[in-house]
Protein 1
Amino acid sequence: MAAHNGSNSISPQEKDAAHEASAAETASQIPIALQRRNLICYATSRMLLYLAAPVTYIDVMHGTLIDKLGASTTVANLPVSAFMYMTLFGVVVAWLVPYGRLLRPVVVAAFSLNAFTGAVVALSLFLPTTPNLKIGLLMVHAVVLGASGITAEICTWEILGRTMSEQRRGWTLAFAFGVGPLFAVIGSAVVQAALGGNISWLTYPNDYAACFGATAPILGTAALIASAYYVPVLSQAAQQRPAFVPYVFGGLWDFLRQRRFLLLVVGYIIVSAAWFVYTNASLNIREAIGVEPKQYVGAVQGLRFGGKMLGGFLLGFIAARWGAKAAALGTTLFTIAGILWILGVHDLPYLGAFALFGAAELMGVYFPNYCVSASKPENTKRNLSFLYLTGMLIGLTPALHGLIVDLAGFRASFLAGLVAGIVALILVLMLPYRPPRRR
């Protein structure tokens, strides 16, 4: 009788472990050729996204153009805010797209919409439209990129989670984020040539128009590649759309009451807050090296992307060999190492910190990767959408670091970042090792 009772008394942790092991087995049973196909689709589309990043990352390009169109500084910063707050749309998408058969079409539609809006902005800049119309379309572009970006991200993560073993997903991320940043460097060089007056026949506003217009074929190609993803057919029982309010609020409670996800969310927020000493570190070049920071802008960006490339390969290998938790831990250690570097190194070697920060920036990949590994397949999109919501809170931390500098100086900001990094490290170490490593 005791044995009978024991067999029926399964703890929630044991149920989770059994479910995750089953999910991993299901992914590993997909033919290698199909897993490899998804690897190629993800890596090549990610490279194209990096190539378009100088335009599609809503910061410098939109801000400088809106400023040049005569708007105030407040208006020039609105696209960034609009982009960040569209992470809320991820929760809606997770609810709207419960059907596995829709994952691929939704990703294709998201990339296609990005390509279309980029072409519309380019056309408005080529044509003699009013400045207000141009500014309005730039705002629309930011909103669309924010909404479609989070949509493509969570749906693609679910595709990877459903179709790849833990190890192969690690190799996929190594390839995508090891090679991908190189394309961002190429894209940045092209944008610099276009906007820097190095192409004589490209004058304002046609120079900006060419940059936005170039994203249309790039993202259109990404959409075409995404159409080749393999997505397994799910049972109808696993594809029912629940009521919205219980799904969101009940789902959020279910998400945060699980220890591994609570640790993941809090750790992600804190390590991101630590990483955002990056801006102050670049401003501190004046003290550390004795020159104006603008003289090393190119070197800083080069080291950042170079570090991201090397970190992409290394962290992908770690994820494949030792699992998702180890890779998330690696990004946290890179963050701490970068802060220790700026606290202890001076003169030209000080710039080496930016390579460490570049590798650490991949926390935006490997914390979500852990979320995928620790989620039941049917909850992957929902859990990721909740994790990405932290972006609205994380976005406040650069201003907080700026305030610390104003009150107590750069070193105080760096020490605050170091403390945050150590706290995040402790939280990540407390994460359970899920799912079990599979050779």
Protein 2
Amino acid sequence: MKNSRICPKCGNTDIVIVDGYAGPYGSGNNIMTGGTIFSAVKVDRYVCVVCGYTEEWIRESELIKLGKSKKWHR
């Protein structure tokens, strides 16, 4: 859905992007990798406005931060 701009569930092309953000007290669409807002990895949402199907994606630049975090395990 991110690359094709086509909903895999219903086939519609009316897709909106909700940009990830990090707000106060950890609010927003993000993954906290540390104790401050500066450590947040933002998660973008792609939403089909016809059927409501959603996908979440992390930008490449943010993947590096997530990969270096010691808070998660593989």
